[in-house]
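Bumping with the actual sequence this time:
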Amino acid sequence: MSSEVQPPLPPWKRALDVTCCLVAFPAFALLTLFMAVLLRLRSPGPILFRQERVGLHGERFRIYKFRTMHVGADTRGHQQHFQRLHETNAPMRKLDGTDSRLIPLGWCLRATGLDELPQIVNVWRGEMSIVGPRPCIPYEYELYTPRQRARFASAPGLTGLWQVSGKNRTTFDEMIRLDHEYTARRGFWLDVRIILLTVPALIVQLADIRQSRRAPAVAGLGEPQPGPGLSRNS
């Protein structure tokens, strides 16, 4: 891992971010309309969900997401889940498969990453980049060791080397290693490659979560079977 602190958004990276935002804005508008209808019918409340995250050099900022949970959903389960992942280094599978806090179709939006599309606003404002380590939640940051916090030497991103390298099939330590590797290797063509690999990675993630959603039903047919493994919210 390189200990050198790189500038957050070199010119080539900012140009790539702006280009991707311009391409994504029409899809953002259409999905916002869809979410407005869905939430009005199935889960009254705001369309967007704002959450404080930790990004470059530990700085705090607010990200935007489409709301995929019922208003007032309890987050204590996720806090306990992340602590288990941090301590046991288990595979970082998502909770989304059987999470009762999710609105109808919420699991699908999260599995495909569409719930994070509003973060192109964060990218447009320069708070994030298209490619980089995912910004973590403050209570997660408090559990990080100094070595693990070195992943914040790069601007946070919508996608990244970790996301296209297995994500939910990797462990917490592997995520940290991949984020360090990205910071050391960061360059235009690596970012382009990661962007191109993101859709195939999301397809694999969707298949994994669909399988975890079927597991409880399958377990009820015949002999008891173990449920899905530990999972993680991105």
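The tokens above came from a reply further down the thread. The chain has one domain: 11-212.
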